[in-house]
Specification:
The protein is mainly alpha-helical. The chain folds into three domains: 174 residues, Serine Threonine Protein Phosphatase 5, Tetratricopeptide repeat (Alpha Horseshoe); 102 residues; 148 residues, Class I glutamine amidotransferase (GATase) domain (Rossmann fold, 3-Layer(aba) Sandwich), CATH 3.40.50. Helices cover 53% and strands 5% of the residues. The protein contains 27 helices and seven strands. The radius of gyration is 35 Å and the shape is elongated.
Amino acid sequence: MLPDDDDDVSNTTKKRQQSIQIPDDLSIPFDLLSPKQKLYNLGRLTSVNEVLMFYETHKGKAYSSFSASAKYYNLVMTSLKRMGVEHQVMDRVFKNYQMVQQPKDSPEDSQFVYNTYMSYYCDLGEVGKVEKIFKTIPNPDVHSYTILITTYVNASMIDQAISTLAQLSKVHTPSSASYQSLLVKLAEDGDFSQCYRILKQMVQDGIELDRSFYASLLPRVAKDPSGQAVDLLYSQMINTKSVFIDDRLFRRMVEALVKSGNTDRSAQVIQLYDSLLPRSEKYLTSVTFYYILRCCPLDRAEQLWRKHIGDQGSAHYMTKFNVRLYAKILGMLPDPGTQKITQLFRLAQSRFDEFNNIPFFFNLILHAHLKENNIGQAWIMYQLLERQKIINTETYHAMIIYCGFHQNYLGDRLADFVDAGGGVVLGTYSHCGGGNRLEGRWMKENYDPLNGGVTSRTFQLKLGQISLENHPVLHEVNSFCGGSQSSHGDGTLAKDSVLIASWENGRPLIAELPTKKGKIISLNFYPPSSNSVTDSWPSNSDGGRLLSNSLKYVKNANY
């Protein structure tokens, strides 16, 4: 199909559209309009028969100098085309025009009718018919060439389309509409390199890009891994300021910047948003708000949320996706503010039932408590989730201690926790490194299954000798690799500890201290998988099972 925005028609088309006189009162019945008013109101008719009745009635009247003109026939043919008339009818009307064509019709007037006729057969995919009509036009204009190019593109005749575009460049200055269908097709077919080359040449030739061109091409080139076309379009839009950025174009550009290539284009998204203020605020939808929120620095994201959603929750922007994103943003702030997350949770509960039965918000609050060293509150929430059976791996992850920030305080609290019968799973770096290891009572009273050491990294270190093959922690664990870093501590087995399994370099991999009231398991590897840290243990390995087994074991759960 041809582009349907008014930006894509030729200057002649625009002048003719501007000359159309439409009655001020559209409530006047069609039958009461004058013949000329009826002609310009054919769009109000709903059937082919009504248009043909008007055509047959008026084509031979006293004002025949008008009814035989290009304007008359073009408006009739445009209405018939819009209604999907059979080609025999369109052919008959066009032949009538050729027979009664007025001498006063200029070549431009005649081209206008021919272009409508070509466009009709372009929509039908009749390549041969379009070529035949094109050859009968004495001096085809830009729009004539554009229709022929579009016909070739729709038929996947890309070479012919490019050749016709080259011919057009020799006789006229192409418009962006002349390139539009071709570039869209190349992008949809995944030929992003050729699409970018042609687009770059257009820019170098000074061809002005219109809104329809941007809006049609952006969603397609957003899939290009290189992101070159999106960057070029963005640069043109921002720097040339030759096109008015309306709400549709703003949304398309934001989405393309977010989705294109492997490069973070957050700065460009924010630049676009800021450059259009305050207009861009009116352009926001729940989706574009999500994208912009995702691109903002943490402090700016919080400001945007307060401005556009606030404590009461604006229904226009507050969707489940936006709530989830903002909740995660709050969790990433240096001071996560348990109170802020809890307040957002209550607001979300009042709007979306699903948040009552999933652990998403509970996990965020749990993480916030741990970040603020509210160990007691975190444990209370963990037990609540366990009782309500809305617990998942993220919940477990929150209770794994692998980095002993505030070493003395946390060491004291964890020792109290174990003395009360609580179970703990440790990971690297909680037992090694002066800045990370657990201290306080935990270190002084020997709660750690491993003696302190320093961090060691070995490429692709694997599970070695198994000392306790039937230990529950090794249930259905067949193999394990620490990844390209294989971070672990070089400490030795502590007094009274039991070795469960070793690394292949002989260092402890899994150990247990059975002498305390609560169970303590030490996993001598970095707990996050390759999903979070690319050089950590592979997420499709048995590392997750080791963590899950260990957590179940220390809390006396069934497997």
